[in-house]
Amino acid sequence: MPPDKAPEGKVPLRDRIPLRVYQSPPWREQRPTWQDAKPALIEAALKRAMARPSGNWFVAGASRDVVKGKPCGRTIAGQEVVLWRGPHGVLMAGSGSCPHLGAPLCDGAVAEGKLICRWHGLALEGKRFGAWTPYPAHDDGVLVWVRLDQVGGEEPLDAPVLPVRPPEGSIDAVATLIGRCDPEDVVANRLDPWHGAWFHPYSFANLHVLETPTEADDRFLVEVTFRLAGRIGVPVVAAFTCPEPRTIVMHIVEGEGSGSVVETHATPIREGRTAVVEATIAHSDRPGFALAKPAAGMFRPVMRWAAARLWRDDLAYAERRHALRQAGRFPD
Known about the structure:
Blueprint (H helix, E strand, L loop, with lengths): L12 H4 L3 E2 L17 H12 L6 E6 L9 E5 L2 E7 L5 E5 L13 E3 L2 E3 L6 E2 L12 E3 L3 E5 L1 H4 L18 E9 L3 H8 L5 H4 L4 E8 L8 E10 L2 E13 L2 E9 L5 E10 L2 E10 L4 H6 L3 H31 L6
Antiparallel strand pairs: 1-14, 2-10, 3-4, 4-5, 6-7, 7-8, 9-10, 11-17, 12-13, 13-14, 14-15, 15-16, 16-17
Helix pairs in contact: 4-7
């Protein structure tokens, strides 16, 4: 019986094992992609993304960053923000500066759902107190968001604009890195899929852009093999879209892990500084994946490491783009 055949009612071996042996040319012998990566096409996709509404919501970090009994501090668009878990674990957020004498509330304490300033014991319950302002907050189960209406300047939305995510039973991990750039530089990096196999040869092989964005269908469709070791990899087809101006999402639409998502969120810290918060939400219909769920804590460090490895290179790209823009030398 041929190796790719199976008795009736059984899944062929090839379909049960997601790994593939692939062939690809050496790095320097790859087909150049610079003629495909048209600056005008990337810029048009970026402008459409930047014009979408965010409702003034900004990603503040991973849901696991905000734990019960401890405040969590962030700087978003120059604003000090503090987050904590109120009664029943509800996410709370507000200005990070104490209204009394300006103490950093991120250094305070949380007791019975109240945020307590460490300098003089002022307790805040998440309601306006003098000059202190609470902020709307949202916990989507993977990420925490804060709505800053004065910063965003848009029509507020009740909740952030979220992409479609895989069903219950997925494994998620969140990696955060800081770059010397603006959110648009981060999004622009992801709107250039052609650099993948050239700039990240350790991760990608045989990358082909199948579809490019248009006004009617604003997405990239990319065929690529994720390299694992040697000539072993996992071929997939992925779609890239921007649901809001500071987010770009990769959905695996064909191949192993179909339904999995990588969300890249760019949160401004201040001008010229941006936090890249990347959430990887892995999913598979394979029976063995359900067995891996209880061991998610073992997989998360590996998932974070893989994301950070890729973004060390991609932040160099985004930072270079930002530096050229600041100097007025970015190619038209």
